[in-house]
């Protein structure tokens, strides 16, 4: 009789362990999937930027420095060895440069009226909104995952199986400051 009770306790503990482990795996995968969504949107922006730069080049030939910086930041974000935080910081700098690029349209009325430029500006604005939403979703998933691995009894299972905390995406200091546009 005692043997049956001990076997029952071991089975219950095993089932609870397996359920908690599977829940941790599910949350970790949600974090990775939400990061992949950010990557998808960054790739979309990456693909749109050369078209925007070429359109602006025709109108703003003396704005080469801004255009060169946009391309440089675009290429840096695509660097495969960059960490998530490095990519987010580069992305923030690119956001500022894109805002400067869009502000150029005020100085070039023909550019402002160019349908291709307007379409690209609309596409990039939509992509920026999608990136912002994907960042929010990522941070939400990270918060749920981190809470899960820090809560009892999952914290025991998490440490036994090497589940580690993920960092949330912070707003870089550059994005907290107002955009300065100089011509």
UniProtKB/TrEMBL annotation:
<dbReference type="InterPro" id="IPR023353">
    <property type="entry name" value="LemA-like_dom_sf"/>
</dbReference>
<dbReference type="Pfam" id="PF04011">
    <property type="entry name" value="LemA"/>
</dbReference>
<comment type="similarity">
    <text>Belongs to the LemA family.</text>
</comment>
<protein>
    <recommendedName>
        <fullName>LemA family protein</fullName>
    </recommendedName>
</protein>
<dbReference type="GO" id="GO:0016020">
    <property type="term" value="C:membrane"/>
</dbReference>
<keyword id="KW-0472">Membrane</keyword>
<dbReference type="InterPro" id="IPR007156">
    <property type="entry name" value="MamQ_LemA"/>
</dbReference>
<keyword id="KW-1133">Transmembrane helix</keyword>
<keyword id="KW-0812">Transmembrane</keyword>
